């Protein structure tokens, strides 16, 4: 009985260790926008940050709100939309925070 539990435990631990290695595998068709030598940005194919959501609104009012293209700012080659001019200026003052 003890041998049976040890065998099951060994198989379980081996599976967990092997699965951990698979997490870091890059698949051939996987899109990767992250370059280890550059900062990571959550962007789409058009270089729009966080699918157009206002980057500051979550931190200011604790809610996710879509930004407007009229309040657009380009930072480090990435387009950022904001809900209003105030949020845009807050971001411009300290972009590293967001």
Beta-strand percentage range: 5-15%
Order of helices and strands: HHEEH
Residue stretches low in confidence (pLDDT < 50, at least 5 long) are none
The overall strand count is 2
Helix-and-strand structural type: alpha+beta
Total domain units: 1
Integer average pLDDT: 78
Number of helices: 3
Largest beta sheet: what is the strand line-up?
1-2
Shape: elongated
Distance between the termini: 56 Å
Structure notes:
The protein has one domain (27-97). It is built from three helices and two strands, in the order ααββα. The protein has helices at residues 2-23, 57-61, 85-93; strands at residues 68-75, 78-82. A two-stranded antiparallel ribbon has the order 1-2. A hairpin with a 2-residue loop joins strand 1 and strand 2 (78-82). Keywords: Signal. Residues 1-19 form the signal peptide.
SSE blueprint and pairings:
Elements: H1 2-23, H2 57-61, E1 68-75, E2 78-82, H3 85-93
Antiparallel strand pairs: 1-2
Signal peptide: 1-19
Keywords: Signal
């Amino acid at each position: 009985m003890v041998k049976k539990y040890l065998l099951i435990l060994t198989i379980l631990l081996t599976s967990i260790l092997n699965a951990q290695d698979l997490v870091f595998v890059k698949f051939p068709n996987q899109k990767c926008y992250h370059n280890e030598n550059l900062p990571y940005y959550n962007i789409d194919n058009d270089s729009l940050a966080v699918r157009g959501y206002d980057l500051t609104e979550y931190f200011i009012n604790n809610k996710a709100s879509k930004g407007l293209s009229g309040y657009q700012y380009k930072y480090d080659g990435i387009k950022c939309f904001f809900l209003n001019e105030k949020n845009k200026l807050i971001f411009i003052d300290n972009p590293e925070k967001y």
